[in-house]
Structures are given as structure tokens and as C-alpha cells.
Protein: Threonylcarbamoyl-AMP synthase
Amino acid sequence: RWSVDNNVDKGESYPQLSQAADLLKNNEVVAFPTETVYGLGGNAENDDAVRKIFGAKGRPSDNPLIIHIAQQRQLNAFVEEIPEKAQALMESFWPGPLTLIFNMKKGVLSDFATAGLSTVAVRMPDHPVALALLEKTRLPIAAPSANRSGRPSPTTADHVWEDLNGRIAGIVNGGPTGVGVESTVLDCTGEVPVILRPGGITKEQLEAVVGEISVDPALTDEEQAPKSPGMKYRHYAPDAPLYLVEGTREDIQRLVDEKKQEGLSVGVLTTAENEGFYQANYVFACGQREFLETVASSLYKALRHFNNTDADIIFSEMFPNEGVGHAIMNRLMKAAGHRVIS
Ligand code: TXA
Ligand code: MG
Structure:
């Protein structure tokens, strides 16, 4: 079992990549960086490899995986047909943080990878290490986020190590990822594409290319069953209970003071603008509110951060539900188990 090496070079010449590619070809599972979060890769055509992914993560078997490819033509092997809108979106956003759902040709990919569905989720990651690794294997690689099921997704190799050390064959360290939240999952099997999971590519960006885009109603209404199986699980949660606060920073400070008086250790999740304002046991800033991309990029690190403290309760600021803020609020709401104080 080999693992994290901090000296990563992104090029073809990097020997870790050949080693990782060989492990994947031998149906072992290996974590690697993408532009969104680290993925835990395995040969999507092989049942054993895919079972190892589910085993290492402790992931429920009814939650299908995203298939990662390096070349569009790889789609022909396992995708039934490529709708016109999907083609246009691939031209615009691949490689990039957009996962497309297609009707699937049966019998090529492991049924475990697709959880027995007749559709398949595919993306081409925009990361030189991921692309070089995929090129080397020449395989469709199934890769969920490389965290233990339910935990925040990993944005550094250390996060992967924390969660999966001893459970997987290796980690390719490519440094911190950029986008920080997972890809947008878009169902392209109907007339109007539907966002099943908000992510790195925004609704506005998609609409600029193909016009009308709808959003799975389950994303805004807790009562509805989500179309993306993974969206029904509690996810991204730190160990201590997290509450989102709809209000001013003074409101948040009042809540902090109350809890401190009860003898609790209190954490606050904020941004650089307000970091100096709060008087709490732990204050962690993720990015700058003014640039929501920076918040997305360090959100999971922030959620993980509180697990290394003795915080009993965490209060978080909220963010505008638009652009990449849509993905940020979706993840925060799940991490908070939908607990909002207004
Ligand atoms: O950015 C990403 O997408 C990262 C990196 C590693 O590529 N991957 C990732 O995978 O987030 P995972 O497994 O954590 O999330 C995959 C999501 C789940 O919500 C799953 O239910 C959904 O995609 N999904 C996969 N196949 C699907 C399908 N055929 N229909 C609907 N949803 C699907
Ligand atoms: Mg995940």
C-alpha cells in the first residue's frame, strides 16, 4: 500500500500516475484529484473494483456512481444516444464540473456502478492529473467523492487520508482542488434538462447554452423524493450539530453568547469579512462572501475543521441562493440537516 506523496508534478512523467493506473487496471481502488473534490476511482467495467469503492466508503449500494472519462468518444461504448442539448453542453463545459445523465447501453458497465439503473452519469474532469490518469488506464473510471459516506467531501489528499487510510490501494496527491464543491448533475434524458444536484457549473451558465433548464423540485422541497439517489442521504455533516442562521452577525453573536452561558463550546462558520467580529470558541472563515467561488472552494475544509475542535455546536452564516451560492446553500442545508434559525 503506497500513499500520499507531497511532491506532485502534473505531467505525464510523474511515476505515481503509472503506478496508480496499474492499480486501477488491476481492479484496485485509488483516490485522485479532480477540479471539484478528490474522487475514489475504480474500473467501472469490473464488479470487484466497484464493490471495493462501495466498501471503502461505506456507501449504500443504491447510490450510483459517476463515470469519469478523458475522451468524448468513450461515451459510444456505454451511452445509448447523445441528445443534441447534451452534445452542446459537452462542447461548452467538458472538461469541467458538469455531470450528464444519459440513457445507458446495458452490459458494458458493472451494474453495481449504476446501482441497477437504466441511466448513467458521466463527466470529464478538468484536472491535469485526473485526465492523465484516465488516459493511462483507457478505462471508464467510476469515482464518487473520496470520503467516508456522510462526511464532507475531500478537497485535499490529507482529507482522503483521514477518511480512507488503510481502506484503499493509494492516493495520488495533486494538492488542494479548486472548485471545492462537486459537479453539477444534469439529467439530459428528457426534453428539458433537469438539475439534480447544483454544483460547479451554474444554472445560468447552462441556460446560456441550451435555454430552459429546470431544477428537481426535491432540491427546494424536503417532502419530495429526489431523482438523484444520493441527494436523499444526510451528507457533509460535521460531528457537532450545525445550525444555519438567517439574520445579522449580531443575531449570530447573541446565539453564541447564549450557548456559551450554558457552558457549551461554540463554533462559528463565517467568511473573511466577519472573521474578526465574532467572540466564540472557534471561528472559521471560508473564503470571502464577496467572491462566492472562494467560499465554495474552502467550504468542506471548514466543515472538517470543526471536527478537530471540541465545539459542541456550530452556527453558520447563510449565502445568497444564486450562482455557485446554490451549490453552497444545498451543501450547507444538508450538513445542517435543514436546521435554520431565523
Ligand atoms: O465532482 C464530482 O462529481 C465528484 C468528483 C469525484 O468527480 N464526484 C461525486 O460523486 O460527487 P458522488 O458519488 O459523491 O456523487 C454522485 C451523485 C450522487 O448524488 C448520485 O446519486 C448521482 O450523482 N447519480 C449518479 N448516477 C446517477 C443516475 N443515473 N441518475 C441520477 N443520479 C445519479
Ligand atoms: Mg459524495
User: Anything to note?
Assistant: The first helix runs from residue 15 to 25.
